[in-house]
Amino acid sequence: MDIRSIQNGNAKGLVATVVRIGLRMAAFPYAAAIGLRNRRFDQKQTEIHKVDVPVVCIGNLTVGGTGKTPIVCHLAQWLRQQNVRVAIISRGYRSDGSGSNDEAKEMAEKLPDVPQVQNADRFAAATTAVDELESEFLLMDDGFQHRRLNRDLDILVIDSTNPFGFGHLLPRGLLREPVSGLARAGVVLLTRCDLVSDQELEFIHRTVSQHCHEGVPCLRTQHATKELFQYDRQTQPIQWLQDRKVVTVCAIGNPTAFEKTVQQCGATILDRIQFPDHDDFGPAAIASLVEKIKGQRDQVEAIICTHKDLVKIQTDRLAGVPLMAISVELTFRDDPGPLYDKLTALIGVVTDPERSRTDQRE
């Protein structure tokens, strides 16, 4: 019995019920603290700091993976195409000795011309990006609850496979704050829409419309699979997975969504190996992983992980079995025009239309 099965109600029995009651009681002081904090910001009792360039926040209401990284990458690439010097700032949760975490390493490979600054103090990170890197536009990754830094637009990301954290605040559920926090969103992006039914999407849209201000765009997206690649950068077309027998390995917030994606690509999953979110895949974890693979390697044709996992595992084989990551990118099921219009309006505040194209790190 794991904590997720208790939170989502799947775990039954007396022990699970008692644990759920305890978690719900623990959620009361958390709710009081987050409510007081938000009121202080709403009433301007806590100072909000500004920088001299537009700040767009990409965040969520829940803990765990909602699919923000492909969105951040898409927005950064779009801004670069508009000839804007953009930087990404983030908390740097569970950074390693190099000062980077798994998301930063993944984005560094995808966005080599976009600098990243990680600091738990997002205002300090923003100041560094503007003053030292001469950035014109900032994307704040995972900062919806970090209200000390002023932002010009909040993009709220909702994972359609678990939109509202089982309907409860931490630790009973996965909500960082009540669903009423949607009222601060300027754009809502629904991710992984291809993994849920139309009825589930309609429910999410109704909930969003109940809490967001009128006219806030709510756009459906999904993660399109591009290809398979290994640590040595060898690639295979995504069709290679069709009818293959694989083991999935991941250390992400929503492993179920990843595993569904692998199945949608036509693979048969023989085993699902899940590590805690942001696990660093240290020597002990790798050793246990290799042992699990050894017992199945006569049947397993490949081990499939995410890009975020591959940058930490850093090998192309485990127990003699090829290790491959799935490359995904953001695609829109709705017209993204309302989102681009808001970004274009912010670009117009600071950019010089006569400025020639320059390299990001010139």
Automatic annotation (TrEMBL):
Sections of the chain in a coiled coil: none
Any Pfam family hit: LpxK
GO biological process, one term: lipid A biosynthetic process
Keyword Lipid biosynthesis annotated: yes
Enzyme Commission number, as recorded: 2.7.1.130
Statement: the UniProt record of this protein carries the keyword ATP-binding: yes
InterPro entries in the cross-refs: LpxK, P-loop_NTPase
Function: Transfers the gamma-phosphate of ATP to the 4'-position of a tetraacyldisaccharide 1-phosphate intermediate (termed DS-1-P) to form tetraacyldisaccharide 1,4'-bis-phosphate (lipid IVA).
Annotated protein name in UniProt: Tetraacyldisaccharide 4'-kinase
Lineage: Bacteria, Pseudomonadati, Planctomycetota, Planctomycetia, Pirellulales
